[in-house]
Amino acid sequence: MKDFATLLDTLVYTSSRNRKLALIADYLRSTPDPDRGWALAALTGELDFPAVKSSTIRNLMKDRVDPVLWTLSRDFVGDTAETASLLWPAPDRTEDEPLSLSETVDLLAGLNRTTAPKELPHLLDRLDANGRFALIKLATGGMRIGISARLAKTAFAQAFDVAVEEVEEYWHALEAPYPDLFAWAADGTDPPDVSNTPRFRPFMLAHPLEDTVVHLDDYAAEWKWDGIRIQLVRVAGETRLYSRSGDDISATFPELLDVLPLDAVLDGELLVRGDVQGGETGGAASFNALQQRLGRKTVSKKMLAEAPAFVRLYDALIIEGEDQREKPWTQRRKALEALVERLPDSHFDISQIVEARDFDHLAQIREGARDDAIEGLMLKAKDSPYIAGRKVGLWYKWKRDPLLIDAVLMYAQRGSGKRSSFYSDYTFGCWDGDPDEGAELLPVGKAYSGFTDAELKKLDKLVRQTTLNRFGPVREVERTLVFEVAFDSVHTSKRHKSGLAMRFPRIHRIRWDKPVHEADRIESLRALIRD
Amino acid sequence: MSAPFSWIRPEPWGVHVVPADCWIDPGRAVDRALVTHGHADHARGGHGETVATPETLAIMELRYRTGAQDDAGEIPHKAVPVEYGETIRLGGGVDATYIPAGHVLGSAQILLEHAGERVVITGDYKRRPDPTCAPFEVTPCDIFITEATFGLPLFTHPPIADEMAKLLSALAEHPDQCVLVGAYALGKAQRVIAELRAAGHHQPIYLHGAMEKMCRLYEDHGVELGELRLVSDHAKDDMRGAIIIAPPSALNDRWSRRLPDPITAMASGWMRVRQRARQRGVELPLIISDHADWNELTDTIREVDPRETWITHGREEALLRWHELHQRKARALALVGREDEDE
Fold first, then answer.
1. Residue, of A15 and A271, whose pLDDT is higher
2. Is the pLDDT of residue B237 over 50?
């Protein structure tokens, strides 16, 4: 446990990617099984101990520390695990040695809601503040120390000099602590047999087009649909649905699990049908409609009937055992077009190719797109194989220009993590009438991105200087600053007083120069609704 | 007879001693200022007269020309030295006594007495031993006006020897690099150097130019700092395996490019919180503070046992809560412009 705690602590203070890779790789090489496998599972976010939640830790703390002092401390630190690790009242001395990482994992896995609050204190008592931090992060899941699953897998590949693509191929079919994976990579045994599991294959991803201009002889254009990117996998009759990050989301969309009539691995966009929000009957509804269905572990019949899911296919990785990935896009597209004829149109269609005379014509088509389920265009190199990850020059995404409004800063909240001392989350509002005739500002959204570090410092200073009221980590500020806010779309919402909710709001520009009464009114924002 | 303690009045820019018409650590120029110590959020130039310890006045002369002659041979900003333990009459029936605060060289608490009432203003203080300044003395009083920079229970500063060991082992592990320590130019830098010497590190220590004069001033006041060299006088390769001390603002500055592959360290109480260290790009956090931590603050209040605590700056909400939990009386003053010097 101590080595793992030291690894986490060192990673926190390391900013260079190469240095992080080297630290993890060193750890994986020098640590025995099964500890290193558990560490890898922790770093890739694969561990889950349902009996230990962030609230379990909070409750333990509230029995030991005054609740007001706990809240003030938590707000200052911005991280429950770290706050608890610092405030834990450690015994003066303990004879017990800390457990090893695998002993700790075994113990955590055996806990239930009743035993967890009794056993965790014993574990915490054996550790110093760094050890407690590592234990709580491990137990509650979600390390949030700036290490992505991809980075941890890359470090694994680097440690044993194997290809990261190969690691990802095996990854989703194996379970922690991955003895077969380590045996293959470290000791050169046969690779794990994953042929009969419906496992996830890493997605091919796109770069933003920005100022690049491509020739349409070499690139095909498709709509970029505003749903969620998924991979549908059927192997030996068993179907699973994976999200973009490789999470198994089969349970959320049960209607897609028995409609694929053949073994295949397909890449597409999951959308819901409906004419309520944006779509025609039988067409795709807006993302707002899809959002009601995300993140659920069980789905009601009503929901299945009102917002049924379907897949708009982009690509085929494997069809009936035949790997398509090495083939150029043109060939894969032909195979996909032939395949879609064999699939039920209740649950599948194909993302249409957008025909344009030339690049300028394509730009016009993009400007003219009004369907709310369209996020923009995709451009795909016609001769390109299907390659995991984001390789320059193969796929580009060309998003529709965002909508813009001018809104006034009203509240600011301290951020989390790296921004825990900065007021970095901004709630802004628009006028509910003519500001010169006594109109008020109503909050319309919240943004925490789109500014530089230097601007963040300036904003933080402004918030501190113009504070009117404090509510815990939130400050109400004088209405002095206008943000130009960019957002993808706006929808009606019962959650906010303004009756509106924005999608992907971010700060586009800070209008230090603009007087607040010139900010937009609610009515101009409402005019942009396309529900 | 006026109401109790009406003679002392907290204002946003400082504490006003009404009958004597003088100010404690005022944030703007006044006719007469009583200054606890030389940090910029307490000491500033431009006062008609500054009353402080000789060490603090020396620091203020260096920084603000307090007590120095101008071109016409006049002394526009007068300096009135008070030794530790010495009591002076301020007028209006108020006496002031300067008592060591243990924060930095020359730092003092100021005890004010008027009509049988005793008020102690701590300025900034700590309770840990520090080879560069006189230790804090507990002074009984009615009103204790305290700082609360680290007034959250999560702030417990570890023994400084542990942090020195961390620094020296990082240095030993990377003999071809250097360790660049960010430390405030007044107080922290000299304390780190003195503690390194105490830990047996006798190699030359390299300084950023902004550190030099203050280090010399400390040496002039009898604080031994060993061999100090200026970074600007040396080639990159000379500094491999060495410790370099610079103000925190220089850590991520272009200045550091002249150093041989520096490991960035920072000596500050804020380093207790990981994200604080990350924000500054610190790779080697050293939890070293010249302020009282939570236990020192609360222990000091118990020992002083005042009728009332006034809290000048820092995490006052948590310290107020502590008073509530312990049935003690306290109020927050919300002075303007006070923050820890590391920020």
1. A271
2. yes
DSSP3 helix / strand / coil % (chain B, rounded to 5) = 25, 25, 50
A308 preceded by a cis bond (ω within 30 of 0) = no
Closest CA to A81 of A148, A1, A142: A142
Instruction: Give Cβ neighbours of residue B294 (< 8 Å, ≥ 6 apart).
Output: B150, B151, B152, B153, B154, B155, B156
Taking an 8 Å cut-off on Cβ atoms, the answer to whether B153 and A15 are in contact is no
Q: Which residues of A touch B321 (CB under 8 A)?
A: 66, 68-69, 72
Q: Considering only CB atoms, which chain B residues are within 8 Å of A14?
A: 283
Written as six digits, the tokens of B102 are 């243990």
Say if CB A329 and CB A353 are below 8 A apart. Answer: no
Q: What is the mean pLDDT of residues B37-65?
A: 96
Residue at token pair 């970095």: A424
When CB atoms are compared, the residue of A68, A83, A418 closest to B154 is A83
Helices A179-187 and A149-160, interaxial angle, to 10°? Answer: 40
Q: What is the ipTM of this complex?
A: 0.93
Q: What is the mean pLDDT of chain A?
A: 89
Question: Taking CB atoms and an 8 Å cutoff, what residues of chain A touch B275?
Answer: 77-79, 82, 417-421
* Prediction pTM value: 0.73
Q: What pLDDT was estimated at residue A297?
A: 73
- The radius of gyration of chain B's CA atoms, rounded to the nearest angstrom, is 21
Query: How many C-beta neighbours within 10 Å does residue B85 have?
Result: 10
- Is A109 near chain B, with CB under 8 Å? no
Helix axes A17-30, A2-12, angle to 10 degrees: 170
Alpha-carbon gap: A4 to the closest alpha carbon of chain B (Å): 17
Which distant-in-sequence residues (6+ apart) come within 8 Å of B288 by Cβ? Answer: B157, B160, B163, B183, B188, B191, B192, B267, B268, B269, B271
